[in-house]
Design brief:
- The protein has strands spanning 20-26, 35-40, 44-50, 56-57, 60-64, 72-75, 100-102, 107-110, 119-125, 137-143, 149-156, 165-169, 178-184, 191-193, 195-203, 210-216, 225-230, 234-240, 246-254, 260-263, 272-276, 284-287, 294-301, 304-310, 318-322, 331-335, 337-340, 343-348, 357-361.
- By secondary structure, it is mainly β.
Length: 363
């Protein structure tokens, strides 16, 4: 933190736990405080909101906290208890066509590789076939670092269909590094399960593995939008709804995987981008805002003027006109309709002046 004279002290706050490549700052939610966007090399962009005292929070969404390959152990481990063709790692492989078959009453301990997480639901998904019975009882524990356990839920379960998903609510506010699940079938003594999921609060992410990004008002509505350059060499724009809630705008374009700088490069009052191509591609690309639309056809239908255009798929183009080409004032007629990806249409109904010059622009 800055004391006002350029002397900084460490606040002790660490933001982000992933492969952070770039940090962006700006007021994302209109509360006059500086928020942060982390551009992550492995999982995309993360938004963190400032309460005004440099305390940041990140929106979350419920999701599976495990990923295929997370460490699993089974106790007691008796090799003869397993169907060797359906071993326990298949319980979190995210593949409903596989199953885990066991002949006893095991306790399965899962260690999420993302670290300690607050799990709020346990999801059980039945196997795709009926070769063996489904489990009918489960016990669920949180496991501390010293391997002590806290029972969080015990419940009877009953499946009535294949690949059926049952979610059990877990009353839990503690972040545990591991979780333990016991499954059993009291009638047959063995069971099969298609998938286990530990459902908890996951930080929301935008897009996929990223290399660069920029915050700028690209559509002139006074809110900071986000442009992300991906590791695969494409870029995507997300427009800001005003509360830091971003929505994908248009389709991705192949531009490069490097840093992005926003600026009005051609003096038309809109934000353009200069983007490093990155990788083995030399140089940088200039992306001009609002000039991608091109009129491809103009015809008359009685008193109407019918226009067709080409542009970026998903572009929210506005048709403008003037009756005096040298003039600087253009009047918006309306938003054009996309009839197929990249193809647009507009009918100017009985304009009062039949001699008009038209152009397309992004709002």
């Amino acid at each position: 933190m800055n004391n006002g004279s350029g002397t900084f002290t460490n606040s002790g706050v660490t933001l982000g736990t992933y492969d952070v490549r770039k940090v962006l700052a700006g007021d994302l939610d209109g509360n006059h405080t500086m928020d942060i966007v982390l551009i992550n090399g492995d999982i995309g962009a993360a938004t963190l909101f400032n309460n005004g005292k440099a305390v940041f929070s990140q929106p979350t969404v419920l999701g599976d906290v495990t990923v295929p390959g997370d460490p699993i152990s089974v106790s007691p481990f008796t090799q003869s208890d397993f169907d060797l063709n359906n071993l326990w790692p298949k319980a979190i492989d995210d593949d409903l066509s596989t199953k885990w078959h066991h002949y006893n009453t095991p306790q399965v301990t899962i260690t999420p590789s993302r670290g300690s997480t607050i799990v709020k639901k346990l999801a059980l998904i039945s196997a795709a076939d009926t070769d063996n019975p489904d489990p009918n009882f489960t016990i669920f524990w949180g496991v501390n670092t010293d391997n002590s356990t806290v029972q969080l839920r015990a419940a009877n379960v009953s499946f009535s269909a294949r690949n059926q998903r049952l979610e059990l609510t877990i009353t839990n506010s503690t972040s545990y590094p591991k979780y333990r699940v016991q499954l059993s079938n009291s009638t047959f003594g063995h069971f099969q399960i298609g998938e286990l999921e530990l459902i908890g609060d996951l930080p929301t992410q935008l897009d996929s593995a990223a290399r660069g990004g920029a915050l700028a008002d690209v559509n002139g509505d006074g809110k900071l939008d986000l442009c992300i350059s991906r590791a695969d060499g494409t870029s995507q724009i997300y427009t800001n709804g005003g509360a830091g809630n971003f929505s994908m705008f248009g389709t991705n374009v192949s531009t490069g995987a490097g840093a992005i700088a926003p600026a009005d490069l051609n003096g038309n009052g809109t934000i353009d981008f200069v983007q490093v191509r990155g990788g083995t591609n030399a140089g940088a690309i200039v992306r001009l805002n609002g000039v991608e639309g091109r009129i491809t056809g103009v015809s008359r239908d009685a008193a109407d003027i019918v226009l067709t255009f080409s542009g970026v798929p998903g572009g929210n183009y506005v048709l403008q006109y003037t009756t005096n080409l040298p003039a600087t004032n253009w009047t918006a007629v309306g938003t054009v309709t996309e009839t197929s990806p990249g193809t647009f249409y507009f009918r100017d109904v009985a304009p009062a002046d039949q001699n008009r010059f038209y152009r397309m622009a992004l709002p």
